[in-house]
Design goal:
- By secondary structure, this protein is mainly alpha-helical.
- The chain has a domain of 50 residues.
- The chain is built from 3 helices and 2 strands.
- A two-stranded antiparallel sheet has the order 1-2.
- The protein is elongated and about 95 Å long.
- The two termini are 46 Å apart.
């Protein structure tokens, strides 16, 4: 993120940092923690999944939907514990030489630009 420089105060916060602060303050005002809500949902899904699997004839679509929902929640929580893994692979690394553009102009009197 680029930060603007103010002569009198040094580095100033960018608009993204200000928006983040406003959103964080609003969540504190509402006494709402999104991570806590995701963890609560994860517990509810585990309970529903256990109930469904304990039935004599569990509904496969319900089990699959619950597992998919649980996976999405876990994927969204994963970066908070471990950080995001890099997405560059050896095959996708671009190792080509940069293009060189050389501009020349002949300023002799015989070559006038029209």
């Amino acid at each position: 993120m680029l930060k603007e420089y103010d002569e009198g105060k040094g580095l100033r916060k960018s608009s993204g940092a200000r928006a983040h602060r406003v959103a964080t303050d609003k969540l504190k005002e509402l006494d709402f923690d999104p991570l806590e809500a995701l963890i609560t949902q994860l517990g509810e899904i585990d309970r529903l999944l256990a109930t469904e699997q304990s039935m004599t004839n569990p509904r496969i679509m319900v089990v699959n939907n619950l597992i998919n929902c649980k996976t999405r929640i876990l994927e969204s929580l994963l970066p908070y514990r471990y950080g995001k893994a890099p997405t560059i692979t050896v095959n996708s690394a671009d190792m080509r030489e940069p293009i060189q553009i050389i501009l020349e102009h002949d300023f002799t009197p015989n070559n006038k630009v029209t």
